[in-house]
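Researcher: Please translate sequence to structure tokens.
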Amino acid sequence: MRISLLSSISLASALFLGSCKSDGKSSEGSEFKGGDKVVRIAEVITPVSIFPHRITNVVEGLIASQIHEGLVRINPKDLTLTPGLAEKWEISADAKTITFHLRKGLKFQNNEEITSKDVKFTFELLCTERVGNLHFQTVCKDRIVGANEYYLGSAKGQNADLKGFKIIDDLNFSIELLNSPNIFLEILANPVAAIISEEAYKIKKEDSFVGAGPFILDEKTSTKTHYALYKNSNYYGKDKDGKSLPYIDSVIVDIVSSTEVALQRFQNGNVDFIGSVPSNQLKQVVEENIKSFKGSPPVFILDQRPEMGTSYYVFNINRAPFNNVKLRQAINYGIDRGKIIDRILNGQAYGPAINGIVPPTFEFYKSYTVKGYDIDLVKAKKLLAEAGYPDGKGLNEIQLIVNSGNSRNNTVAAEIQKQLKNNLNINITFESLPNPEKFELQQQGKGDIFRDGWVADYPSPESFLSIFYGGAITPDMTKMTYPNTIKYKNAEYDKYYKMGSDAVDRDSAAVNFLKAEQILMDDAPLLALWYESNCRLIKTRLKNFHVNPIRYFDFTQVIIEDQKPAEKK
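Model: Translation complete:
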């Protein structure tokens, strides 16, 4: 791990800082009746949709996972699987069939009972070809028996049953799989696999906000930049003493223009949690607040830990000039990632991404064996010449598009612009756009390089490697694909990725995933920059609030305890 300003903060420790008090009012001035026990969060990514099948970023996932519930949940402390809507399940002797048992008395937020038919509807909806279904590949493709055939049939308007899904009775059903159930169960804990109300969906389609989760979206006061969620009284959750969960009354997520604004709101006492401290203000935050730690109870925490996340750029490989692998490799060798971390991020990273796209946070996965790219100007210039652009001559100005909201995206882009000009005489211009606009241009292939990043949807290297799996790419280049937004396709990569995905155990999966990742890095459709280590600010009044490497937030057992200042002696 790279030594940084806060090198004394270990994986399990935190630095306690100064204090503020929340006023409990909505930033929009709305009359939200959410009770007194309110958790407030500030985020910078504007959601495009919070419908489970359309989720593409961590903020959409954060909100959707409060409204919706899946068959399986994740323990936010250690990322182990726990029962969700399914109180238990059994795996057959041949490890190909999972039989699930729903809890009795489950209800959606519209008071509709949840049965096996709703689960079947959800999986058939995931297997239906339609605009807005981004997670057929994530959940069902090549996993559930008959899923691929159902998807192809739906595209032709054919009606059929999903062969691998069998209803036993109202509370029991089975899913037959093509391969190992291990990763499949972890995927079911992701909000993209949440169970959907058929009744609500038929009325409002993807605009339906009816789920089975612990909180209900207040549609009257919520906007695209302000999400107000109040406690679901029908939620099944109970604590060990039989008390209903969640304990708190509501969660409010405000979307702000930048991480600097989020920090200001936290310091002013308007929010309880921010997911990222601006790297250019981290030192100042520490220096201004460290004194208030001494002699008074801590009121908030600065928490730093590695994440299962990677920041990177992707090349538009389907048009010139980046359909040229040697140019992509030259740029990879032409970037000093260490300088970016030291100069721009102020050490706020787990380390430079000089191996592959998978971060070194999986103990069973030998990511250090993947040969990626580190600064090597001799190789870079040689490859640039072989690509047909000696000393950058003949190469037109390159367009880089980054998403707005986080100032470091611009400062990193400026540093890369500077390095490529100085190192390889390559000219780059960059533009900062709201995430929905950037995402649309990326899907349409309009641009040369795009800023991107990934946090694991589930704790497996597969989550990262799925980004470049070509199995879902259609010949029609105008069609949206997700998560493979650049429509990368390499038969050898796909072969080893699929072998890893189908593996019966973790070790054999890792062997094949490593082979796939090496092929990916050699082909260089991406410019891996750094592995994430995030700094968060959290009010200590939030008890039982756990942060984790995949940014999965569970508020069901959070308790709010406002502390009284210590008496002066």
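Researcher: Any highlights?
Model: Residues 1-29 have pLDDT under 50 and may be disordered.
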